[in-house]
Structures are given as C-alpha cells and as structure tokens.
Design brief:
Bound molecules: ligand SAJ
Strand order of the largest sheet: 3-2-1-4-5-6-7-8
Number of strands: 14
Distance between the termini: 55 Å
Helix content: 40-55%
Radius of gyration: 23 Å
Number of helices: 15
Oligomer: single chain
C-alpha cells in the first residue's frame, strides 16, 4: 500500500501515526513545527503519555518518516487543532484548512483525506470541499473523529469504537481497513455530517454532565450540604450517574467543542450554553472559596498560598485551558500578586511563580489548594500536615480539609 500520511503530530496525530507504523504500515508523520520534527527524529517523544516511548521506538523500527511537508501519496489523516473564535463561538478552521491546502498541492490523484480533528457539523462541506474544487482535485473526504482520552490514549486507540463518515461505502471500507490494522473496537459507517455532529455531541454530553455536578456543588455549599455524599448516594440508583464537581473544565476538547453548537445554533442551544457558562465560572468560584477560607483563618498574605496542579486534569502534562492557569490570572487581577504553583508533571516553567521542587513549594506556603488529583499526590500529601487545605477534587481525606 501507499504511504499513510498523518498531518498534525499532537496528542492524537502522533500516537495514531506511531501506532500505524508499529503495525507495519508505511507512514509519514507531518508537522509544520520543525522543533517537533527534530525531537521525534532524535527518537524523543514530545509529550508525556503512557507507553509512548516504547511505541516511538517500534515506529522508528517500522520505518516511520518525520517531515514538515506532506508526503506524495493518496491516503491522508489530518489531526490538527480546531479552536473556536472567542467572539463568534464558531469554529476557527484555519489549521485544518491550511493542512488540507498543503495536501491538495502534492497528493496523488483521487486521494482519501480523513479528518480526525473535531469539527463543527458542516465543516467538510463548507470549508474543505471548496478547497479541492479550487485545486482541481477529486478528493474523497471523510471524517473519522478521534475519541481517545488523554492519560489512556494508547489503550483507547486500540479499543474504542470508531465512527467513519464518508460519501460512499467503498471509501469508508478503505478507511476501515487502515484503522482495523490497530483498532479492535466496533466500526460505524455513516455520512460525514452525522460523524461530525456525533463527535461534538459526545463532548457536549460530558460538558453538560460536569456542569450539573458543578451546579450541585454550588447549591450544596449554599445550603450547607455535603455534595460528595449526596452524589454518592444518588449514584446508587440504577439510572443515575452524576460526575465529579471540580475547579473547572479544561483541555482542548470539552471546553471548546460545545461552543461550536452555540456559535452555529445560538437560538437552540440554551442548555449547552448554560453548561459552558457554569463550567467556566468554576475558577472564580474557587477563588471566592479561597478568599472565604483566608478570611476565616486570618490569612492576608497571598504569597503564603499555593496551588497544587497546573495541568487541566490528573496525570497529564497538558495545560491547555487549565483551570489553574485561569485561576492564576484571576488572582493576579483581583488580589494583585501571583500565588505559588507546583505541578509534578511539568518539566518546564510556564509561569513565573512556579516551583519545580515540591519540598521548597510546600515549605513556602501555609495554605494549599489541590487543583489536580495527580497520582503523585499520594506521596506529596504526607507533607500537608499542619497546612490549611482546600481540596477542589475530593482526593485528600483528612479531618478539617475544606472542599468546594
Ligand atoms: N472533569 C470534571 N469532572 C468530571 C470529569 C472531568 O471536572 O467528572 C474535568 C477534568 O478535570 C478536565 C475536563 O473536565 O478539566 C475534561 O476532562 P475529561 O477527562 O472529561 O475529558 P478530556 O477533555 O481529557 O477528553 C475528552 C473525552 N471525551 C469524552 O469523554 C466524551 C475523550 O474521549 C475525547 O477524545 C477528547 O475529549 C477529545 O479529544 O475530544
């Protein structure tokens, strides 16, 4: 078979490219960022994810090629970011458009171009098909949205069910045969727009359910009730499964994708919009809790306050849309200085007040706010004795701990 060219070597594209290559397919991994390509060519991974080092080695043994420009072939997978425009809430398709333009310049006739990036329903029709028409290429577009969970990407890549949206059965079957080289999950073949919408719906479902848990946390705090105990009891019902309240929804998926529906269907998306607003209000809510607790304990010096965890969730090193970073901005604006932060998974300093050494961090603070329930917390929490603790994740159980 011809080369499979995977464009966008981020948290989805890279594991996909490496997995395909490790299964013996000829693969080119493409990213426009030369430093990512150089790092991979040196045999080093570009982000933390369970099993990636070994997978990269296997892919290199399998002959994977890393490059900044798309390869000349007839099978492309695109996994580039799809942010939203903060004003209009609509998708910003510039990366996916740029990637497809590059592909159309070099591809063999009649190529298959599979979009894995999450896109708003209608994106392929509205933004991508016209590019092929302009370039005079008869491209076969498809949408096979990624569904893998950061922190368990390699496991889910192999086991999750997959959607393949395509214009005709033959194209869908060709795509299925490539993905079936590593995916043991169920395949559902459908049309492109349905596939686009199904993916957005999945992440929106989760966003709404997290918002419900967050709203319950606020109600219970206001009414003097224990939200965690109430959720635990309610979840004993066979048809109730409430998620966990937390300091906010981060990451580049769940905090972004529902906006596409709000942007395109503003009159119909009331619940979705409210859920987004509730989840986005959580960093401010945590800040209010921090202020209350400081007042209750007569703490006025914010330099003795520290945030444990910067990434958007446990056991990942991804800080995109991180609630901690949003909170730090709020603290800077509302309280005038930057509190201390520490994250055991971050190898580089991303904010001035960040400690790289846990012992120094904990020594310099009296009040610790747990923002992320990393596994390393089990070891670090031994040093929390004698400190005031606000646990926003319900992961630290000790008498006197404050919760959201
Ligand atoms: N969170 C809560 N409470 C919860 C669950 C999550 O506050 O009960 C927070 C997390 O701390 C995090 C955010 O929500 O800040 C999102 O985390 P997540 O683990 O729910 O999801 P992601 O963004 O890491 O991955 C999601 C997944 N989608 C679904 O579960 C429907 C994944 O399968 C998708 O592939 C991914 O989005 C994506 O790339 O679209």
């Amino acid at each position: 078979m011809n080369i499979v060219c995977v464009t966008g070597l981020g948290r989805v594209g890279l594991p996909t490219a490496l997995t395909l290559a490790s299964r013996g397919l000829p693969v080119a991994g493409v990213d426009s960022n030369p430093s990512i390509i150089e790092t991979l060519q040196k045999g080093k991974v570009t982000f933390e994810e369970k099993g990636m080092d070994a997978l990269l080695e296997a892919a290199i043994r399998g002959g994977i090629e890393f490059r900044v420009k798309p390869a000349v072939t007839d099978f492309y997978i695109v996994a580039v970011p799809t942010p939203y425009d903060k004003k209009t809430k609509k998708i910003d398709p510039s990366h996916v458009v740029g990637a497809v333009r590059g592909i159309l310049r070099v591809c063999l006739p009649n190529p298959i171009i599979v979009i894995e990036s999450t896109v708003s329903p209608g994106t392929t029709d509205k933004y991508l098909r016209p590019l092929a028409a302009e370039a005079g290429v008869t491209a076969r577009f498809a949408h096979a949205p990624e569904r893998v969970l950061p922190g368990g990407i390699l496991y889910e890549l192999e086991r999750n069910a997959r959607i393949i949206g395509a214009d005709d059965r033959e194209t869908a079957e060709q795509i299925r045969s490539v993905y079936a080289s590593f995916c043991r999950g169920m395949f559902t073949l459908t049309d492109i727009r349905t596939a686009e919408m199904a993916k957005i719906v999945e992440n929106t479902f989760r966003d709404i359910n997290i918002a419900f848990a967050n709203e319950l946390a606020k109600i219970c705090r206001s009414g003097g009730m224990d939200v965690y105990e109430i959720i635990r009891i309610a979840n004993l019902h066979p048809r109730v499964n409430i998620l966990h309240p937390g300091p906010g929804v981060g990451g580049h998926c769940i905090s972004v994708d529902p906006w596409f529906l709000v942007g395109d269907y503003p009159m119909q998306s009331n619940l979705i919009h409210e859920a987004r607003k509730i989840n986005d209000s959580m960093p401010m809510y945590v800040l209010e809790r921090v202020r209350e607790i400081m007042a209750e304990n007569n703490i006025s010096d914010t330099s003795r306050v520290g945030f444990y965890g910067v990434s958007y969730k446990e056991d990942v090193d991804d800080v995109r849309e991180s609630p901690t970073l949003q909170l730090l901005d709020l603290v800077k604006t509302c309280m005038g200085n930057e509190p201390k932060v520490f994250d055991p998974l971050l190898r580089e300093k991303i904010t001035a007040s960040q400690y790289m050494d846990f012992d120094r961090f904990i020594r310099d603070i009296n009040f610790v706010i747990i923002m992320v329930g990393h596994s390393r917390l089990t070891e670090h929490q031994k040093s929390f004795n004698g400190k005031i603790v606000l646990d926003t994740r319900n992961v630290y159980h000790r008498e006197g701990v404050y919760r959201i």
